[in-house]
Amino acid sequence: MSDIITKLNHVLNERKHADADSSYVASLYAAGIDKILKKLGEEAVETVIAGKGGVRDEIIYETADLWFHSLVLLAHNDIDPQLILDELDRRFGLSGLDEKASRSKE
Ligand SMILES: N=c1c2ncn([C@@H]3O[C@H](COP(=O)(O)OP(=O)(O)OP(=O)(O)O)[C@@H](O)[C@H]3O)c2ncn1[C@@H]1O[C@H](COP(=O)(O)O)[C@@H](O)[C@H]1O
């Protein structure tokens, strides 16, 4: 797993024991799942707007916010980000069109 994802995931798990007044992540956990999902939705929308705008730095910045809040959601659910990388690895080389076609035969 990438070094920064590993380090960040470690901090996100540590923040489960932190004071909400001194940590943004702890404040999200304290506010609960609906707040985490609200932030994730906002960041998704901001990423879409940045994508539409086409400004490279804004796309990078907003995607970082989106990935960060996705990692918060995973940590909140005790899901190791490695499992997402494993899922992408499992899909690697399988065309999305072929995967979709195989689903319609089920
Ligand atoms: N990578 C991040 C990171 N990316 C984005 N953010 C925060 O995510 C929030 C994004 O919300 P918005 O863009 O909507 O900004 P906002 O208007 O301030 O947010 P709201 O008031 O609407 O909640 C901002 O408060 C950002 O500072 C992050 N906060 C923390 N981290 C990492 O998480 C670690 C732990 O953070 P703390 O728990 O705060 O110590 C940090 O050391 C960083 O490594």
Automatic annotation (TrEMBL):
GO terms for biological process: L-histidine biosynthetic process. Its EC number is 3.6.1.31. It catalyses: 1-(5-phospho-beta-D-ribosyl)-ATP + H2O = 1-(5-phospho-beta-D-ribosyl)-5'-AMP + diphosphate + H(+). GO terms for cellular component: cytoplasm. Keywords: Amino-acid biosynthesis, ATP-binding, Cytoplasm, Histidine biosynthesis, Hydrolase, Nucleotide-binding. It holds the Pfam family PRA-PH. Pathway: Amino-acid biosynthesis; L-histidine biosynthesis; L-histidine from 5-phospho-alpha-D-ribose 1-diphosphate: step 2/9. InterPro entries: HisE, PRib-ATP_PPHydrolase-like. It is found in: Cytoplasm. HAMAP family: HisE. PANTHER family: HISTIDINE BIOSYNTHESIS BIFUNCTIONAL PROTEIN (PTHR42945), HISTIDINE BIOSYNTHESIS BIFUNCTIONAL PROTEIN HISIE (PTHR42945:SF9). NCBIfam families: histidine_hisI, PRK00400.1-3. This is Phosphoribosyl-ATP pyrophosphatase.
